[in-house]
């Protein structure tokens, strides 16, 4: 039994049969879907089992994904997982009132600097407040003589130079008239140790001299 033509749906005889695109065609019916130009096996282009000439071949710019039941199920599952993760993160961070900051080397350096400044501030305030401690009252509870207030060594008469040199590892702003300000990397010369927490020296860059915290510099 002879097949039917894919274009005109009429019987195709062997002498005029063209077998292409899973169909049989009359030679005259094997033509472009758009311009009806007669095609052959060398110049046709197939799209969705229909013949086209080169000029009218459909251009496909993107791939469309069908909303099959399986794709819809995966889409819904992904959405539910996203909502679960969001809820978990919200419950975990609820009430904390702060944002998590990565513990980078830069953040560690800033934290160390802040700790050093805090320690120096506590030490400095403790020295300042020693002079304000009240003396013990006399046994008669009527009158007592205040004791002289201890003071920190004055900066007016610096000790003789010993040639020690230090380099600043942090910035420091003077908190009193007898202190000296400096920047990270400044060289401090003529350094003398006053006590465990304080030194006396001169900033080579500015020429200013005065007292400075010992944990802000390192020997060179």
From TrEMBL:
Residues 161-220 form the SH3 domain. The keyword Nucleotide-binding does not apply. Keywords: Acetylation, Actin-binding, Cytoplasm, Cytoskeleton, Ion transport, LIM domain, Metal-binding, Methylation, Phosphoprotein, Repeat, SH3 domain, Transport, Zinc. GO terms for cellular component: cell cortex; cytoskeleton; focal adhesion. It is found in: Cytoplasm, Cell cortex; Cytoplasm, Cytoskeleton. Its main location: cytoplasm. Residues 129-163 are annotated as: Disordered. SUPFAM superfamilies: Glucocorticoid receptor-like (DNA-binding domain), SH3-domain. Plays an important role in the regulation of dynamic actin-based, cytoskeletal activities. Agonist-dependent changes in LASP1 phosphorylation may also serve to regulate actin-associated ion transport activities, not only in the parietal cell but also in certain other F-actin-rich secretory epithelial cell types. This is LIM and SH3 domain protein 1. It comes from Cyprinodon variegatus (Sheepshead minnow).
